[in-house]
Task: inverse folding
């Protein structure tokens, strides 16, 4: 899948800029988190127009039970397998985050092992930087499936729709370029990963349900 390069234009709300570090057969690594991030002064033009989708409800993501860690991994694999079947090939997966790669290395390890090996070709860890939309857009065009990763170690679950949210425009861009069924969100390092907690998060941040096929919650303890 390819993506047209976006041209900077003025908009009502300034997008955060992004950058991504890469990993793969012939991919180099971009810089990891540093102290030189700056906010965008200009914004890229949205290249595509996506038809509005019906607003999902929390029941689209939960079944009323507390899912085990392995159960969530299996559900993630099922979501990705569905995307792989639709594309007719193994997936190039980008993990997009403002967190360091080391925080979600456990997820990369999972995606590079069975049963994901049957559907995943490469995994690229992507660091979102505040002054690198050009790199971000190139990385989105590289992948077929996107995972937006957020860790509560950053302080709050402020992904979309709330004050100081970190990923409003980033998640929407992934949705626009890859399609909803090729985007999921992983929220990590929580104390509660129950369906009830998903309902709370989706109630406060409804764009998660609008722009992502699934939302997965993980606690620190269940990854051990």
Result:
């Amino acid at each position: 899948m390819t993506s047209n390069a976006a041209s900077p234009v003025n908009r009502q709300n300034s997008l955060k800029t992004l950058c991504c570090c890469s990993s793969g057969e012939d991919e180099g690594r971009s810089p990891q988190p540093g102290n030189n991030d700056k906010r965008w002064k200009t914004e890229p033009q949205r290249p595509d127009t996506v038809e509005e989708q019906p607003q999902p409800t929390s029941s689209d993501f939960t079944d009323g039970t507390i899912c085990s860690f392995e159960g969530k991994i299996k559900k993630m694999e099922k979501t990705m397998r569905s995307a792989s079947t639709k594309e007719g090939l193994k997936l190039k997966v980008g993990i997009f985050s403002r967190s360091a790669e080391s925080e979600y290395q456990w997820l990369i390890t999972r995606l590079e092992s069975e049963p994901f090996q049957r559907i995943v070709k490469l995994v690229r860890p992507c660091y979102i930087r505040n002054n690198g939309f050009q790199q971000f857009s190139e990385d989105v065009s590289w992948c077929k499936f996107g995972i937006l990763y957020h860790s509560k170690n950053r302080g709050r679950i402020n992904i979309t729709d709330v004050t100081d949210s970190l990923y409003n425009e980033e998640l929407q861009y992934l949705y626009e370029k890859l399609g909803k069924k090729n985007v999921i969100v992983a929220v990590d390092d929580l104390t509660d990963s129950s369906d009830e907690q998903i309902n709370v998060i989706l109630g406060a941040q409804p764009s998660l349900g609008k722009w992502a096929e699934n939302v997965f919650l993980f606690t620190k303890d269940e990854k051990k």
Residues 1-31, 34-51, 57-66 have pLDDT under 50 and may be disordered. The first helix runs from residue 69 to 87. Strands lie at 8-9, 43-44, 91-97, 120-127, 145-151, 183-190, 214-219.
